[in-house]
Each structure stands twice: as C-alpha cells, then as structure tokens.
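Re-running the complex after MR caught last week's input typo. The corrected sequence lines follow. Everything else is unchanged.
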Amino acid sequence: MRMYDLIYTKKLGGALSPDQIAFWVKGAADGSIPDEQSASLLMAICWRGMTTEETLALTLAMRDSGKRMNLSSVPGTKVDKHSTGGVGDKTTLILGPIVAACGVPCPMFSGRGLGHTGGTVDKFAAIPGLKVELTDAEFIRSLAETGFANSAPTGDIAPADKKLYALRDVTATVESIPLITASIMSKKLAGGADALVLDVKCGPTAFMKTLEDAQILAQSMVDVGSAHGMQIRALITRMDAPLGWAIGNALEVMESVEILRGEHGDSELAQMSFRLAAEMLIMGGAAKTLIEAQALVEACIQDGSALETLRRFTALNGGDAKALDDFGRLPQAGQTVDILSDRAGHLSAMDGRALGLLAMDLGAGRKDRNDVLDLGVGIRVHGRVGQRIAAGDRLFTIHAKAGARIDPAPYLATLQITETRPLATPWLLATIGC
Amino acid sequence: MRMYDLIYTKKLGGALSPDQIAFWVKGAADGSIPDEQSASLLMAICWRGMTTEETLALTLAMRDSGKRMNLSSVPGTKVDKHSTGGVGDKTTLILGPIVAACGVPCPMFSGRGLGHTGGTVDKFAAIPGLKVELTDAEFIRSLAETGFANSAPTGDIAPADKKLYALRDVTATVESIPLITASIMSKKLAGGADALVLDVKCGPTAFMKTLEDAQILAQSMVDVGSAHGMQIRALITRMDAPLGWAIGNALEVMESVEILRGEHGDSELAQMSFRLAAEMLIMGGAAKTLIEAQALVEACIQDGSALETLRRFTALNGGDAKALDDFGRLPQAGQTVDILSDRAGHLSAMDGRALGLLAMDLGAGRKDRNDVLDLGVGIRVHGRVGQRIAAGDRLFTIHAKAGARIDPAPYLATLQITETRPLATPWLLATIGC
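Corrected-run output:
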C-alpha cells in the first residue's frame, strides 16, 4: 500500500477503504509516513470530505492507536459529556457532581485550555491540591467511590489523534467535519463510557458558525457513536456571550459552587448545566422523562448532595475541600479593577471570544501550549445580555496580577449597548439523536 | 507573516499577495517553513486554484530563488521550446539543429526521464562522449559557435522549484494548472531565452486529458510568459501513440538523424518537429510567415546544414560526431527480438504510455530517479496507427539486454487491431498565443 495512492484517491474525490485509513493512521503515529504526506491528505479531506464509513474507520483506527479504559468494575451505565468549547463554560464542574449524586457514574476526561477557550482541567486545578492527572487506578477509584472522575487524558489514549491534531493545528486543517468527529469520538470511545451527551456550540465565534454546520457535525458524531453501540445525543447550543458571570479558573470554581448551592438558578449557565445533567440521567437509567430527570437535578441541589459529591471528589483526589465553602482559600488575583459603563442603553450583545482573549491576556488562558497560568485572575461579568444599563453602572470587575495596568477600552469594545432592547434568543437551538 | 495564515486563506478560496507567495517560496527553499505546511498549501492550491496574479508571483519567486542565465553576449533573438512530455518525443534533437542552421540561436535546458517518458538529456547522452551537463561558459560557447546549446539544468536554476517539485511528487499535488505553469515558466524565464514555443500534450495518457484542460494550461503559461516580455506561443498536440518509430535513447538518436537526412518526411514526428521549428524561426525573426519558415526548414534539411549543425554541436561538446553517420558507434542492445502480429485487421490505436513503461522495464527509462540507464535498449515500432496489418506482420523489434526474456503479450496488448479502419485524427489540435 502506498500513501501516495491514498492522497491521489482523496484528491479526486474518491473514498478510502478501512484498510487504507488504518494504514495511514498507523503510519502517521509511528512516523513511517512523513508529515508532508499526512498534511496533504488532511487538506484533501477538508476539500472532499469523508463518507460516514470513512469517518467511522478513521475514528476506530485512532481509538485503537492507544489503550482503552476498562470501567467494567464500576457498576451502572457510565455517562460522559463533551462540549466543543465555549468561553466561561464550566458545566462539567456543575453537572458531574449532580449526575453522580443522582446515582449515575460520570467518568470524564477533560482538556487544557488554549487560546480564547479555557479548559476544564485548568478550572479543577484552581482547587488547591486537587490532582488533575489521575492514574487509571485513581480514576476508577474516584468513579467507584464518588460517582465522578475527571482527569486530563493520558498520552496513552488515542496517541494517533494527538499526533494528527498537532499536524492539523499548523496546517489549517482543524476545521473539517469528519476530522473533528474522529478526533472527539476516538477519545470518547477509548475513554470507556457507555453513553455520551454532546454540547455542540454554534455561533459566530464557535467552530461551527451556522446551525446547519453544527447539525452536520452533531449528526456525524451521533452516527459514529451509534454505530459503535454507544448511547449518544447532541444538544446544539448558542455561543456568543460568555457562559455565566465568571471567566478565569478560580472564579469559575466559585460560580460552579454557587450554582450547586442553588444560586443563579435562572441563569443560562444553570439552565444549560441542569438540562445536560438531565439528559445524562435519562441515558444512565435514573429517569425516564426529562421532567422526571429535572426533578432529580433539582432535588440534589436542594438537599446539598450535589455539592457534597464535589467535596468528596475533591477530598479523595488530594484537593482542599474546604476551599469550596471558603473561597478565600482559592487562588486570588493581586488586584481588582471595576469597569463602568460610559453610556446608557440596552446591553444587546457581548463578544465572548474577545472576552476570552482578554482573560487569556490577564494570564487565565494560554497563548502557547507551554504557558503557565495564573489561576486567580479573570473577569467577572456583571451585565447580562438584555439588561438595561445606566451610565456609571459596573460592567466588569477585572481580577488581575498586582501592578498590571488595565485599559477599560477593549473591555467596553466587547459590548454592544443600543437604544432598543434586543430580541431574546434561546440558548438551546436543536437536539439530535435518540 | 505566518505560514498558517497563507494556508488558511487559500483553504477558504482567497488569493495570496505577491509578498505572501515570496515568503512561502523562500521559506520552502531554505527550510524555515516545514514541509508539512508547504504540502498542505500545495493541496489547497490544487483545490482552490490561483489567480493569474498569484501564478505570476509564484513563477517570479521561484525564478528568483536561483541564478538567471545571461545570454546577451550571443546576438539575436534566442528561442527555446518546451514540451510537457511524450513517449518517443525527440523533437528537440531535430528542431534544435534546424533552427540553429537557419540562423536563430536555440538555447535549451532539458530534463532527465522518469517513469514512462524519456528525457532529452538521456537521448543526447546516447551519443558517445557528448557532455550533457555544460557549465555556463560551455553553454554560451556552444550557442555562440553552433547556434545550439543543450544542457541538463544545473541546481542553480530555480532551486525552489526543485524543492517544491520533490514535495509535489510525493503528495499527489503535481497535477495543478498554476503549479505546473509556475514550475515550467520559472525555469524558462531563468534560462535566458527571449522567446518560447510550448508543445502542450493532450490525451488520455498525458497530464492534460482533455483539450479544454490543455488549453487552460497553455493559456496560463502564455499569460505568465507574456507578462514578462517573453514572446510565447503554444501548440496543443495529440498524445496517444508514441511519436515516431523509436523509443529508447540510442534508437531515438538514429531516428532524429534519419529525419535530419530527409527520411520519414511525411511522418507525424517530422511534421511536428518541422512545424515547431517553423514557429521558432518566426519568433526569431528569420521568417515572417509560416510558409516562408517552412521553406527555410525544408532547405536546411535538403542542403544538409541542419545535420551538419548537429555534427558541429556534438563535436564541440566532446561527442563522437562520426556516430551520427555510423550508427554502429552508438550504444547497442545485447539482442533483438521481433514481435509479430497474431491477427489481421486495422491498427486503430497504440498505447504510448504502456509502451513507455515497457521501454522503462527494458532499461531505457527510470523507475526511480537514481536508476542507471541502458542507452542501447528500446523498442522499434513498425506499425503506424491507421495501417492494415496481416497476421505474421512484424509489429515491434525489441532491443533488449542480452539474455533478457521478452514476453510478446504485454507488447501486443498495447495495440488495438480492429476490423474497421480508424478515423484519422490530426496531431495539431489548437494553437494559443501571438
């Protein structure tokens, strides 16, 4: 088999066989196929796409390039969640403890942040002492004892995806439905969960700009998961403004705990987290209907068992559980600066991506893969889209390093303040799957 | 400037600026841009194409990556010819001496063969002693003293093209109109000729399968040449059967000499060589009309001055000029084997590409860039398309290494012998340019 023939076939719009795809993935991972040939094939895939069969074969080949987690020692249907990435998205910190508290095991592998989006692993790392890279034994123990486990993925899971992703990152071939599908689903299938809820973000600053594209990606992932006997369902959610009031790692832990305490229950963040949790509970067999599932979610918030699960998970994995009740124990910023509105009107739009980049500049996110984060810094967003603003109202509180100069102009530029009130748009755009 | 942004722009179908293209070509040549990024951009160019301005910029950037020949010490309009490659194509050996004999200097850089097509340099190398890699001084001396110069291109001419071509060769990105245009034209512009005749081959086994594609490529090259003040004209010629009776290096020298002696004057090879030579004479100012130019060609064949020019060129560059009159002095094959027809009918088609590959297998061509050729071996084609064949007629004489076993089946399989006589098709399909 010659790599040249694979590239040529795809260049002309043909389909590759499962054997050809396995040959490529193996060769890309072990270095026997040079990067320039993989890069050329990746661009040809962006051009010509892949059939469902090809996407399936690519997913399986990448899954089989490394180890597969065996979670069979933990009883029950294990349910995972994946989000395609949003600014201020701390839903995992909220729904993981909720789902576990309702009796459904929730094993999750989360990523580190890069660019404007934060990573769940970084958010957990803001809890002092909490171990965010678990061994297999620690991961399974956490899942068995608390119902929840979260870890940065080890290099052993889908190493071919890691290799190909690094190549896609420098060759402008990240944005491709089959490549995104295979990258996500190979890791999820290797992670060992039985069921998966997908949160596919859609909006001008998300990967998927249009509802149509988001639906195609969601359907592609649902098809691949279903074909491998995984229960899978996708929610397509709007992404424009940041999710919740917190951007930045320790701040996002605080906001998550507040929601688990029952605060901000009517916020979009709480509504989205609860809905995703409810979907997971149905998949895990804890509820039959959405109404039933939502009642379970509500109950574990009210009786404190969700927050207690987060405390137990934290303590078991070396973290300071007291920090969840005493935020003074979390990393703090050196200074806080308020940014006030210079005009009156309706807050009609907020650019989440721009705010994510500003938070990155403060030190809450990574420009480069090797950057070290300042876990205490970030942005508290006071306004909500749709709200009426008066001149002098506080819009943001910036949590910055001591001595950093904060220019309000770029923050104010992320907002649209208009005379007319904006139309309210729902956060849930569509659902796909069983 | 970031290479990523160039790839991303082209992926989305945008145009690159001349500065961006120069940045890429320089980086690809000096290694500062990794091959995987160039490979990805090359495939994106195959996908999205290039505007005329982009193709111009790419051509110039590649031309300027190395030295430019300065032929100004030789008086007159220097006229070159380029063919996109055919089996049995020895037109350079014929038209170079003709054009020079008519007083128009003809400086040519020719390639080595690879795969089913032979290379002009290899054909000249079959003349014992003839130096086929000339220094600049030797090249200019040959042009000044005989009117004709031919050399393998030195690595100093368009090294960026050499680097990118090697990458295209393994990444299935050779077939792209702007990339082919820039590759050819960068070398031709660096070669120092004032005028250029292009022979763009068209047919099922050529790069350009359809007349439409061949016209687009020809127009693209004519546009680039014209934009740089070069006189340029393209002939689109049919390629299916081999050109002439000889495939193989020494055999092709023999056939060229025979045509320069005035033999086979009605063959397609002679007609094509004479027409290309006539076009070159018009560009070089030796004739005003095609009829006038064709009369000059005819005269220099009749009076022997064309063949005498080849003898002088050969002797000046260290070659055995006597071998042009005594073919026994040329490299010989170890054995000859005749292949006879097993049926009667009309010879209606001949697969030039398959015959080129068979000649390669005999040792006349290279499977791999580093293969060493046997200059004496090859195929003598006795039949011509359109001819009536009787069972037992001699179709081919195979000139092979001593002891090689020749299976007639693959040779017979290159021919279509039918009951009905095929329609005659012209070899000249279209002309493009001034």
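None of the earlier attempt is carried over here. Chain A has three domains: 3-49, 79-326, 331-418. The first strand of chain A starts at residue 79 and ends at 83.
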